[in-house]
Structure formats: structure tokens, C-alpha cells
Design a protein that fits this description.
Layout (H helix, E strand, L loop, with lengths): L1 H9 L8 E12 L3 E13 L4 E5 L6 H8 L7 E6 L2 E2 L15 E4 L13 H16 L5 H14 L16 H13 L5 E5 L7 H18 L2 E6 L2 H7 L2 E6 L2 E7 H6 L4 H8 L2 H7 L1
The protein binds adenosine-5'-diphosphate (ADP) and magnesium ion.
Length: 279
């Protein structure tokens, strides 16, 4: 099914966005209160080789949007297209084949890692599924090579492949979660607060890793963070979210140096080092 999406992608304009979000609405049914609208009419494009950063205070709808982007949350309105095809969750827990190259990285690596299995086993499983979907023959040798390759790429010593997730540091665990996403040969990765739970030094290294992956593999990436400094440092474009809407969206440099929306200015003034940088 991955081959099918490739053919489909090849038929598209190469400059076309990988992800196109139009007027997306996400709402939740709240007991006794009707529906709560968490995302109200968002437009967003994600292109190959770029990082789009989404910033905003806790509760503004970032994770709701992220889950809709990858087809975990169903939209109540608007549309999200990935490689020209609608992103629609299946009623069952299985992920549609054409969404395999659209991956998510969570704040907590345990959201995608099983604590009870060696990381090697988990990576093997992903490689097997991706190869099967491509119609490739399964080969234990090629699999080991692919896994070592991806571990090296994320900066984890392949010698650690036999470990269980708890025997890794927080930074290593997040790198393994990223490796898992990479084994599917992704086109777009949506990372929701990917470094928020890490110590300061791992934060710096993992955000550099994410930037390098986008540059080297020419994938598209959405990075969501409540920490403006993170997004300012690595995103090409930035969207500022407030109460379910984007109040402003543009090249990161412009958004930080000449914000058009008073709310952006207010957010920025709460970050001393950014204000310093502007002056
Ligand atoms: N499953 C849910 N049911 C009801 N309300 C929800 C649910 N998930 C999130 N919300 C509400 O939607 C709003 C946005 O949440 P979220 O997308 O998690 O924001 P953020 O990631 O920016 O902190 C919050 O008010 C939150 O309480
Ligand atoms: Mg969130």
C-alpha cells in the first residue's frame, strides 16, 4: 500500500504541499454541555523539507489539531489531505495504509513504545509491517541493517538494541520513538511537544536531530510546543494558536521580529531571551 501511495504522490505536483488543512474543526462531546469546539477553522500547509511550528498556551487546541492531522481525531468540519488524499480515521483501530507515511511523535515516548518489549523487537515489527505494505520480501539481514542504520541516524548506539525502554535515558527513549517513525519511511512527522519532557541538554540535542532529519530526508514536519524558544530555533514557519484558531501564521523570522497580532506580542514578551534577540 506504500507503493500505491508513492504512485499517487508522484502524480501530484512536486511543489504541492504534503499536507493541506482547510478550515479544520475539531470538537468534543461534553457530557451535559453539548459540544466543545477545540479547533475552530484552521488552515495549514506542510511542504517537503520544512518545519512548521505551532505555538500557543496550554489548552488552546494544539494536541487536538495534531491528532486530527494524523487521523487519530475525526474532524467535525473542513478537511485534511495527505498526499492529496483525505485523512480519515477508520472506525477500527487499524491505520489505513495510505496514512502509514504520516507519523506522530508524542511528548511521552511510551505512547509509542511498549515497556515490556526489547526495543529491537519493536523496531523489527515496524520494519516487517512497512516492508509487507511495500510488497518487499522480508529479510532478517536487511532488517537488522535497516534498524542499525536508523538507530545511528537518531544517535542511539545500535549496541543498545537489546534493551528495554526503561533501561534507556529519557532522551534515548525519545530518539528510539523517532527511529520507530523513521522505519516506516515517513513523508511527514507530526511531533506534539517532542522535547518537553526531556532535560535541557537532551532538549537541545533532540531538537537539532529533528531539524537534521527534515533537512537530510526532505520530509515535512509539524512541531508543536508551548515553549516558544524551541519553535523559534528550528521552525521555518510558525503558526500562533489561541482558543482553537491561528491568530497569525508566517515565516518564523517575521513572526518573531514583526508580529502582526497583539496576542503574539504578548506571548513573546513573556520570553526574555526572545525579546532580547529582537532588540
Ligand atoms: N477528549 C476530550 N474531550 C473533551 N475535551 C477535550 C478533549 N481533549 C481535549 N479537550 C479540551 O480541548 C481543549 C484543547 O485541548 P488540547 O488540544 O489538548 O490543547 P493543548 O494541546 O494546546 O494543550 C482543552 O480545553 C481541553 O480540555
Ligand atoms: Mg497538548
Amino acid at each position: 500500500m506504500i507503493a500505491e501511495h508513492r504512485d499517487h504522490a508522484a502524480a501530484l505536483d512536486p511543489a504541492a504541499p504534503l499536507v493541506e488543512v482547510r478550515d479544520a474543526v475539531v470538537s468534543y462531546r461534553v457530557k451535559g454541555k453539548g459540544r466543545f469546539i477545540a479547533v475552530q477553522g484552521v488552515d495549514l500547509d506542510v511542504r517537503a523539507g520544512e518545519i512548521v511550528g505551532i505555538v500557543g498556551e496550554s489548552g488552546c487546541g494544539k494536541s487536538s489539531l495534531a491528532r486530527a492531522l494524523v487521523g487519530i481525531n475525526r474532524l467535525s468540519g473542513g478537511s485534511i489531505r495527505f498526499l492529496g488524499r483525505e485523512v480519515t480515521p477508520l472506525p477500527i483501530r487499524r491505520r489505513p495504509g495510505h496514512l502509514v507515511p504520516l507519523q506522530m511523535v508524542f511528548q511521552d515516548p511510551y505512547a509509542s513504545l511498549n515497556p515490556r518489549r526489547q526495543i529491537m523487537r519493536q523496531l523489527e515489527e515496524v520494519w516487517n509491517a512497512a516492508s509487507r505494505a511495500r510488497g518487499d520480501l522480508l529479510s532478517a539481514e536487511r532488517r537488522t541493517a535497516a534498524i542499525d542504520d536508523v538507530l545511528e541516524r537518531v544517535g542511539v548506539d545500535p549496541e543498545l538494541r537489546g534493551r528495554y525502554p526503561h533501561a534507556l535515558s529519557g532522551g534515548q527513549r525519545q530518539r528510539v520513538a523517532i527511529a520507530k517513525a523513521l522505519l516506516t519511511d515517513p513523508k511527514v512527522i507530526v511531533a506534539d511537544e517532542p522535547i518537553s519532557a526531556l532535560d535541557a541538554s537532551s532538549q537541545k540535542h533532540v531538537s537539532r536531530l529533528l531539524r537534521a532529519l527534515v533537512d537530510d530526508l526532505q520530509i515535512g514536519m509539524v512541531i508543536i510546543s508551548h515553549d516558544l524558544a524551541v519553535v523559534a530555533a528550528i521552525a521555518d514557519r510558525t503558526a500562533v494558536m489561541r482558543a482553537g484558531r491561528f491568530v497569525e501564521q508566517g515565516p518564523t523570522e517575521r513572526v518573531w521580529t514583526a508580529p502582526e497580532n497583539p496576542y503574539t506580542l504578548q506571548l513573546l514578551s513573556a520570553v526574555p531571551e526572545l525579546v532580547g534577540r529582537q532588540g
